[in-house]
Amino acid sequence: MSSKSIWQADTALKEFPKLQETKQTEVCIVGAGLTGITAAYLLSKKGMKVILLEADQVLSGVTGHTTAKVTAQHGMIYAELIETMGKEKARQYYQATLETMHFIKNEITENRIDCNYEEQDAFLYTNDEAYLSQLEKEAEAYKDLDIPGELVSEMPLQIPSKQALKMTGQAQFHPLKYLQFMLEEAVKNGTEVYEQTVAMELEYNRKSTVITKDEHRVTCDYLIAATQFPYIDHQGLYFAKMYAEQSYIVSGKWTGDYPGGMYINVENPTRSIRTAKLNNKDTYLLVGGENHRSGVSMDEKLCYENLKAFAKEQFEINDISYQWSAQDFTTLDKMPYIGPITKGDPSIFVATGYRKWGMTNGTLAANIIADTILGNDENPYKELFSPARFSSKPMLKNLFSFNMEVATELIKGKLDFPASKDIDELNPGEAAITTVKGGRVGVYKDKGDQLHVLDTTCTHLGCEVNWNSADRTWDCPCHGSRYHYDGEVMAGPAKEPLRKVTLDD
After folding, report:
1. What's the rounded Cα separation, in Å, for the pair 239 and 294?
2. How far apart are alpha carbons 243 and 332 in whole angstroms?
3. Rounded to whole angstroms, how far apart are CA atoms 218 and 244?
4. What is the pLDDT of residues 260-299, one digit of tens each?
């Protein structure tokens, strides 16, 4: 069973060097995923000097673990946006997404990018009577916003469903092959790319200076934080304005004729379904879902097992070859934060909170930020997605709700006094939370029987991390920080690794 995504298994990406010196540039982009690469592509085409920094390898993060649906059907969102933001802003959200889809299609067509782009209808469906009225309300929102769609009683894919909401003219593609082209073009245009280069701090004195973990510096006129969580906060308090969710995907070879379409249900547990081509030949089914708040104490392996059971039961797919997970953030009003990090920092940009719809939201973010840097002030969506926006109706309610959950997890973690365990009984690949010298620690035994003993206190704001048995990571339930089993930071907002603990002899 491969823990790589189907996209990573199907793409040979070029490797780039680690930053080893001080640099100056016009634009520094931190994060080489969809947003960062698209922004580098757009800016370098206009002759701007760009440096792109990646903490790991390019496209190794969320973009490499997506379901890659290019769609405006972002779950049950439009009725909610009309209620909380008003009809005009809801229409703007749809229009922005539609224009972004056209941008992606045009880039693929004009540049003849071989990325398995296929137009498909998208379906929101339910098999639960309790959700029928919500689905009908969403269909009314489609009519109010002039979104092409209709309620249907049957779908092309024969799975249990009482009703579905169809949105026509959507698409799916191979995200890494699409972005591989953009990255290569950006490099041809002069963009410098550095992997294994962790951005840690920011100095600001008329110009921004990114300081890396190895204490190298990149000074720039404009900085784009295109990481999943902004690697800098600058009093934006993003950790308090978003929460992280984990989701899972399994994939196996499809035999026979697939009837077409992309599918996602509206009830829990989530089931997202589409197909993809591997090596431009074999068709694979992708089944995603089992969403939960990141870092909560649970059996993550069961999430994969539930998806496998669904795939085998509904589609008779027994050969599950790939499984992987992804984490993404949701904002207070469910729309991404795109633009200057704060009102006082017009040259420092963030792009975050895509709510699992990163193919469109991430591309939209790159276009908005590139337009702003290039002086194209006519972009009509800057204010809608501005991180400085505040709509009291949904935001105050969710700000309280989000942070009450954080407080609950913080207190629960501090009151958790696990009994001491005989860690010698751990098998390779297993972990346990126990007590050492009166403190809460996490212990993992690797394949070489080496023990990795860590203080479980998250280095961001002090919550207690939990073990993720499926991905073999330590995850924080408060703000979504993730650590490798050896304690090194995998995803922010944390910057420092978990503290290593020495066992008594």
Report:
1. 13
2. 9
3. 29
4. 999 999 999 999 999 998 877 889 999 999 988 887 767 7
